[in-house]
Fold:
Amino acid sequence: MKTLISSFFQDVRLYRSLRFRIFLIVLLIGIIPVIIMRYMMVRGYESRAINQKISEVTNQSAIVAAHLARTDYFSDTSDIVINDELIQMSNLYDGRILVINDDFLIIKDTYGKSQGRYIVSSEVISCMNGSRNMSSRDEENRYLEITVPILDEKTGKVYGALVASASTDSIHDNEELLDRRARFIEVIIFIIVVMIATALSGTLLKPFDKVIKAVDSVKEGFDPGMESIEVPDYTETKDIMDAFHHLMSRMAEVDASREEFVANVSHELKTPLASMKVLSDSLIQSGDSVDAETYREFMQDIAAEVDRENKIINNLLSLVKLDGNKDTEIELEPHELSPMLQQLIKTLTPLAEKSGVELLYEEKLPVEADVDETKLSLAIMNLMENAIKYNKPGGWVKVTLDADLQFAVITVSDSGMGIPEESINKIYDRFYRVDKSHSREIGGTGLGLAITRNAILLHRGAIKAASIVGEGTTFTVKIPLRKDI
Ligand code: ADP
Structure:
């Protein structure tokens, strides 16, 4: 049973092979017409030979019947000339001839067996009544039977009928010979076709072997020289290789960006640690000479660095959670957006007051949308925090809520320092900051906008920034109103 199952799967595998299919197709295309041709040739010969024989025997019978009608054979069957003619004809066709009078009595049988008997076959009856020639064929016993009327040509009077049977043995023998020869040729063609099919299925698929080899070689480790492997034999193989190279270079890019990310993370995490180390070392070295005030100041700095470290780690965790891979859960539910934004304004008011920035809110339309409130709040909060952080005393931050037919539109504008044009596409990269030292000074981690963008993409939304250096920045966020559009 086990071998049966495994052989079945092996068969399926064989059937699924393109090489096998090409082999099979070439084989069928080569062999089926040959079989059909043989069949048609043999059949065609048979029907032609039979028809020819029928017409030959019918003509001959008609000639004999005409002789019979002209003599008084029906009253005297001893006419030697006629009897000779009948015997000759039956010998010629390797058959038998019956002469029947109009009472359906057999008056002559060249076999001599049935003389004096009656014959009432449908052929004889319809032949006598309709004065027509009749023919039938017995395929099994291999003979033809021709029935012709014996009639007076002038008056049309029917005297009787002549039944001639002729053997078809010679036709069948010829047919068998022909069939045997055709089969022999068929076998030769079959062998040639198998050879052609084997060769074709081999050569046609060779380029795919190259493709498989190239893909296989990656298993053993990525080889940069692989980039140059091209299989231009077919458009398909070329496309596969192009797609493959594209995939490989994407993988290399992902690899490089992961390495860069790890390097960045290590660097970012090390910076606060290095500061703490410097601060604590200098405290240790100074020994007892440090007064309590300086001590407290240093400890406060160390605590600030711990907070920073904590913030970076928390941001990294948020970023991983919002990474947009398929495990990221997002719960889209209908929410009024206005209360959510107002709550954010309330939360950030102390920070804005501390920075001397005015917070403004404008609701152009009340909007309800399918959102994950926690994730969207985090995204907008980051934008508002940046708008406050990268602002100037006496500046303003304005949040607006609007909607079009499909999207909720939230904008966060500020009167801050702005973002240079060459940086505007990079600000969403992890750890990217326009001014590294300034960002660090005001407690930035370089991860805020990366988190914001991920959260918005999870909502299948979009984010865009427009900025003029020295005048301010506007971030526009669009979120689909309904999750199923
Ligand atoms: P950070 O924690 O440094 O603020 P973000 O990812 O939130 O990191 O922002 C990336 C960089 O984009 C910031 O360092 C800052 O240079 C720039 N940026 C973001 N928002 C604004 C803004 N509203 N005005 C000016 N620059 C901004």
Remarks:
- The chain has twelve helices and twelve strands.
- The chain has a mean pLDDT of 89.
- The two ends are 53 Å apart (CA to CA).
- Residues 382, 386-387, 390, 414, 416-419, 427, 432-435, 439, 444-450, 473 surround adenosine-5'-diphosphate (CB under 6 Å).
